[in-house]
Amino acid sequence: MRTVEKQNKKSRLNESLKNSGMKLTRQRKLVYDTLLEKLDHPTAEDLFFRARKKQPEISMATVYNCLEALVKCGLVKQVKVGKNAVRYCANLCEHAHFVCEVCGAIFDLDRDNREKFKNMQIKIPRGFKIHNFEIAIHGTCSDCNILRI
Amino acid sequence: MRTVEKQNKKSRLNESLKNSGMKLTRQRKLVYDTLLEKLDHPTAEDLFFRARKKQPEISMATVYNCLEALVKCGLVKQVKVGKNAVRYCANLCEHAHFVCEVCGAIFDLDRDNREKFKNMQIKIPRGFKIHNFEIAIHGTCSDCNILRI
DNA sequence: CTAGGTGCAAAAGGTTTGCGGTTAA
DNA sequence: TTAACCGCAAACCTTTTGCACCTAG
């Protein structure tokens, strides 16, 4: 990663935390970096193991706390699909998630749908206000479809 | 409820269970009826307390088992929003859920959006297959907006 | 008659919390 | 300097499971 990008990333994290009245700590940076490294929608536990490789003292509770902070300041979103632990997503574009019912993998659907999501005018009752929305599509991915033939 | 409707409901439950190789039991009927009574997206625990009023011997585990059976046979859907227990929904129309971030209430959005959801052509990668999708909209409901002014 | 379901209690996740020590600003 | 945060362990809440008994078909 180029130096400029690193600075952008760090300052984005710092700013976002500061805007929400929170501090930039080593652990929060570590968890955020770890999440950005591999955009595969890891669970808190996944992130714990990945983060521990770089900072062995970090604890599970800290990972949860850091993720909570990152969600609060708007840099990370929770993804609740399947029947297991919550997954985390640092992709801030409006996008849908495709969940493979066979292998459990989660794919971001954004490239071809961004306009569609932007223009989607869902009708809501008078007086309601929308903050954001999430779309989860359940199905089977190409790899699993091939294996099933 | 008219007798015809009762029969339709019972036979629908019976057929759906049978199609999935499961039996119609008193508890499954009770849990399904209880869910249909009040379409407020209750948790398993909510349903347990409501069902227990009619059949005090029913256990929490049975409520979970019955809900699992109802989900498997396609009559009930799980709704995962907010940070607490899974909620259950017996509305089988394609619809989105509006989740109030203040009071936690969940509203079905279908009336004005059914066509939109049907026609929504989300682009997915080659080889992927869609089974179904869920849309959750987060925001604030009219009651909570009034109280906040 | 018997496969499948129930009720109970106990265990298993996943997540949160209380607390003493540490650190960012 | 000090409010906020970390690491640990224990608690908590939701959900699942094992097992003896029961029941729908």
Produce the secondary structure layout.
2 copies of one chain form a homodimer.
Chain A: H1 3-19, H2 26-37, H3 44-54, H4 60-72, E1 77-79, E2 87-89, E3 96-100, E4 106-109, H5 114-119, E5 129-140, H6 142-148
Parallel strand pairs in A: 3-5
Antiparallel strand pairs in A: 1-2, 3-4
Helix pairs in contact in A: 2-3, 2-4, 3-4
The first copy, chain A, binds a DNA duplex (25 and 25 nucleotides) through residues 21-28, 43-45, 57-62, 64-66, 68-69, 83-86.
Helix content of chain A: 40-55%
Shape type of chain A:
globular
Strand order of the largest sheet of chain A: 4-3-5
Query: Cα-atom Rg of chain A, whole angstroms?
Result: 17 Å
Please report the distance between the alpha carbons of the first and last residues of chain A. Answer: 41 Å
